[in-house]
Structures are given as C-alpha cells and as structure tokens.
Amino acid sequence: MENLSYYEILEVSQTSDKETIKKAYRSMAKKYHPDKNAGDADAEHKFKLCNEAYQCLSDDKQRSIYDRYGKEGLQGRGGSSRQSGGFDDLGSIFEEMFSGFGGGNSRRRKNPADADKYQLDMNIDMYLSFHEAAFGCEKEIEFNYKDSCKDCKGTGAKDAKLSTCQQCKGQGQVYMKQGFMTFSQTCPICNGAGSSPAEKCESCNGDGYKKEREKVTIKVPAGIDSENRLRVSAKGNISKRGTRGDLYVTFTVTPDKHFIRNGNDVYIEIPVFFTQAITGESLTIPSLTGELELKLEIGTKDKQHFTFRGEGIADVHGHGKGNLIAQVNLTYPKKLNSEQKELLAKLQDSFGVESKPHESVLDSAIDVMKGWFK
After folding, report:
1. What is the 3-state secondary structure (H, E, C) of 9-51?
2. Does the predicted TM-score (pTM) go above 0.90?
C-alpha cells in the first residue's frame, strides 16, 4: 500500500474535491482504526498511511506541491507542518468517528445519569451429577443480584448530584495527538461516564447499587451437558428504571464412575475374560434404564463395540436419544497352574493347523531373510 499514491491510498481521483477526500478518509480510517483491529499490524500500518495521505491532500499548499513533485517535493517544504486544515481538522473527524464507538460528541451521547453501572444480565455456575444431567432435575439456587440504589437513583452520588468530569469535559473520551495521528481512549478519571459524584452516596458507598439475595427453583431439562446455559427470565440485576435482566445458569456435569458421555451417546467398558470372548457368551450389563443382555460374538476382539440403539441420553432439544456403546476389554490370566496349562495345550492341539496361523506367514519370511545372506 505504501507504493500507492496518496490518491490511490484513499481510493479517490486526482480531481476529487476536499469534501470527497474527507469522506473517503473517514471511511478508510474507520476501516483500519486500531480500536477495531486490535493486534493487527497490517491494519495499523494502513491506518498510518491513510492519515499521512489525508494530512497532505487536505491542505491546498501541500497538495499542490505533491501533485507537481510527489512525496520528494514535500521534504524540506513544510511537509510536516500543517496550515488551515491541520490537526484540528483531523481531530474533528476523529471525534465524529469515535461517537460511533460509544464516545464522541455530546449530541450523540446519552445522559450519563441514565446509564447503569452494571450489566443487567448475569451468570452463575452450577455443577450437576451425571445422573442429574441425564434425567433432569429440580435445583434450588441462591444468588446475589444488584438492585439500583433508590437513595441516589443509581448514580452513586449523594442526592443524585453529579458534576461534569473536568478531564474530558463530559465526553467520556480523551484525545491524544502523536505526530499526524489522533488517538482516543476512555477517560481515566470518570471511566467513560462523563460525570462523577460530587459526593458519595452513603447508602451504597458510591457504588450506585445494593446487593440483594434471592432463592429460585429451576427445572433442569434431561440431557443438559457441560457448557450448556439455561436462561431464567427476569431474575438478573435491576436497572435504575426498574427493568430486570435475565439470570443465566452455566452447567458443568461431573463425570460418572462407569458411564462415559460423548454428546448424547454413552460408553461403558465391559471387562470380558478371554474364554468368554472365544465361546461367545451372553453377559448382563448395566444401562441408564436397567439391565441389558450383551451377546458376544464367537471370537470377540479386544476393544470391539456393541451398540444399543436409543439407550443413551435424551437430546436436550427433544431430538431423540443417543446410543449406549459397550466396549469390550479382554482380560487374560496372569498365572497358570499345571492343570490349566495342560488343558490349554489340549485345546490348542484340538484346533490343529488352525491353532498355528503364524507358521505359514513366518516360515516364508524366514526363507526370504536367509536369501539375504547367501
């Protein structure tokens, strides 16, 4: 972008009048302003170039020099000093811009005395057991909420008397100029309110609100999961005008000892002795609603899954139920006595060639290997 002319940077023609250039600059400055592109170095660089271009083209003298000699012609010819357009013109544009970001001129600002000092909606965290989340439950919760102080009308000032902030002159924003750039930030004295209490309200110690405690019983729907939120209407903080926000409850579900949840599906690990897997036995396993029969296949493999449709958790939005997946974990004896060894040897012999699948594979591999050393 730095290789472009000032006209190309602002996307205007060389014959554009001042008003067109000003309008184009305002649009480009809003697009690349650091407040809207936090941490974006490329946007910050383009923002500086837009300022540089406007600083030149908004001044008749500098624009004339630039049109005849380019950027080089500005060097040593007062290129860094401004005349009638000057930084004041840049500052006025920034004030217009920042009024759209919540600061700016007083015509667009609401009366600071009308603003609440806190958000009306609020959130609390709740822990549920696996069972409570899967089947739903009722829970009583006790929480603190904020209610606007009646004595100071929520302003935090004695008798609701506020004085205009002397630092920002009631704008809530302060502006700083560095070279050809103008930056805005929230006023550090009034924190953007534009006013401050002449004297603190004794009832709320200047907070503008009082904390109240309340109990409410909520119905937790079946299928709720971690990070899900439930909205409890009109149980949040109360504004100066008496409007009450909503209470949001964010859930965390604690893990179960046996069941593992994945969305609406539930997994359970079933330990199976190797002889049970070989013979394909039937096992009784637990589910969320009772007992189920798990019929193993002959030669069931380790980690093999058996799915029971519709035996999982009900979808919290009412879209059916998940599945129960039983995962087989094969177990083997750690020790064998002489009798067991004898029985296993007889069993293996009874399968004949089938009991030695490795021989046909490994013998051919050994023959190939021997050929490597001839």
Report:
1. HCCCCCCCCHHHHHHHHHHHHHHHCCCCCCCCHHHHHHHHHHH
2. no
